Amino acid sequence: MNGSRMDRTRHAVNAWFLHRADGMMHRIYGQRKRAIYAGLPSAIVEIGPGAGANLRYYAPRTRLIAIEPNPAMYRHLQKTAQRYEIDLQIKAEKGEKIDLPDKSVSTVVGTLVLCSVDNPRQVLSEVRRILKPGGRFIFLEHVADLPGTALRARQEYLRRAWSWAFDGCHLNRETHAVIQGAGFAGVDMNCFMMKSRLLPFAPHIFGVAVN
Ligand SMILES: C[S@@+](CC[C@H](N)C(=O)[O-])C[C@H]1O[C@@H](n2cnc3c(N)ncnc32)[C@H](O)[C@@H]1O
Question: Separation of 150 CA from ligand 1 center, angstroms?
């Protein structure tokens, strides 16, 4: 993630924001994350872990391979890993091209990340490639509201400014459909709306897809 000085500033601001938002994310998502993270193994690959919002839910001494292209995140991620005793390896690469062998891992986690990647279909194809048969992709994402709703209209209206301010995050991605269409053997997907429906990222999905 090189890019212009403006891009680097946005990456740094977003890293700081995610770091500061950690407690709030825990309050909003903690209960649902605990439900889908039950029985995590001792080795996990996470796509776009950011400042490490998920590390508090991993068991101490978990071996975590972090696929994270924004170097401004690394300082926060390393500190969070130390705090929760996670054995962290950062790979400075994008989820669209993961430097791991085929069928080599049993669990991949991704939260609030398919909204931000360049190509969610390609990322899921890579996730499926590195997962063993029967391996699990655990996800939590904000998604586009149904077409024709007032909220969807607001998501469409705000999408450019939002994407600029939040480092490439897309409010109007139909990530639910992308996961359903990615070729997993099974997808257990749940939906929820955040309490304030005025928030443009209120609709969410979370669950587990099995390879
Ligand atoms: C909104 S943040 C979410 C961070 C974290 N997963 C969480 O739940 O707080 C999106 C993250 O995805 C990362 N990201 C952006 N594009 C990516 C890509 N192509 N592949 C992997 N990660 C990417 C960003 O650097 C950032 O860390």
Answer: 27
Question: Do the Cβ atoms of 69 and 98 come closer than 8 Å?
Answer: no
Q: Is the CB of 126 under 6 A from ligand 1?
A: no
CB 169 within 8 A of CB 138: no
Query: Which of 116, 125, 139, 171 to mutate to test ligand 1, by most ligand atoms within 8 A of the CB atom?
Result: 116
Can you give the pTM of this predicted structure?
0.95
Sequence-ordered list of residues with C-beta below 8 angstroms from that of 200, at least 6 positions apart, any chain? 151, 154, 155, 158, 162, 171
- 50 CA to middle of ligand 1, Å? 5
Question: How far apart are the C-alpha atoms of 111 and 172, rounded to whole Å?
Answer: 16
Q: What's the pLDDT tens digit per position in 177-186?
A: 999 999 999 9
Cα(92)–Cα(6) distance, integer angstroms: 20
Give me 49's structure tokens.
Answer: 């872990």
List domains and CATH numbers for the chain: 5-210 (3.40.50.150)
- Say yes or no: CB of residue 15 within 6 Å of ligand 1: no
Q: Tell me: the pLDDT tens digits for 26-52?
A: 999 999 999 999 999 999 999 999 999
